[in-house]
Design a protein that fits this description.
CATH architecture: Roll
Number of strands: 9
Radius of gyration: 15 Å
Order of helices and strands: EEEEEHEHEEE
Number of domains: 1
Length: 111
């Protein structure tokens, strides 16, 4: 089955570790490239060309992005509002221990 691609580009991400060992992550986006839409601190693009999940993942990587990951209900609703409720590949995959992870390296925290 071939689905359309929804890519997410992380605009700017900087991790800062304090002297106490605490890690703080700061996200901000100055702009999104032409054709991309900003949602929170990330940029998204919807590709209407049908392709397999592996091809979609590779296509996003070629754009410097990942298949989209959805971390909050708000983000999910905003993406649907912007791009419609069309079928699309997103970047979730099952790890070796049966846990699900996003292609950006984060664990599933929203369902």
């Amino acid at each position: 089955m071939k689905l359309l691609t929804l890519c997410a580009l992380f605009c700017a991400m900087m991790a800062v570790t304090t002297a106490g060992g605490e890690s703080h992550l700061f996200n901000w986006c100055i702009y999104c490239p032409d054709g991309w839409t900003q949602v929170g601190s990330r940029c998204f693009i919807y590709n209407q060309n049908p392709m397999s999940w592996d091809s979609a993942k590779r296509h996003c990587w070629e754009l410097g992005a990942n298949l989209a990951s959805v971390h909050t209900y708000w983000e999910h609703q905003r993406i649907i509002q912007l791009f419609g409720n069309w079928p699309a590949w997103i970047g979730g995959s099952k790890g070796p221990k049966g846990n699900w992870w996003w292609n950006d390296g984060t664990s599933f925290s929203f369902s």
